[in-house]
Predict the structure of Thioredoxin, mitochondrial.
Amino acid sequence: MAQRLALQRLLSLPARGPLAPHGRALGTSAGRRSTFNVQDGSDFQDRVVNSPKPVVVDFHAQWCGPCKILGPRLEKLVAKQEGKVLMAKVDIDDHTDLAIEYEVSAVPTVLAMKNGDVVDKFVGIKDEDQLEAFLKKLIGA
């Protein structure tokens, strides 16, 4: 009986949009839209190489400790740019071909791309001031 009541309550809740794996609704803020996970080589070509906006490409791995620190820090700073720059996240274990093509030999590796070309790059973790300078150089601010 208690399970049925709980299920009825759950089914009567208003829809909150897509749910993240941890059960919370996913946000649709400008920051979230400016960062995306690359799905495959074709997606990378469409959304990164052919992008009219500059793109920061974060090559990372789930098992990489420094990546877990750098990723959110970089996402936050990209979101602050209010759409002037996009951020593509590429998991090297899922997209080995892209990692090889862009000569990624360690993670995290971050590329700055403009008009399909790599214009800047760094490997390893950076503090917020260094990341801001990297982004400003990319967007020409």
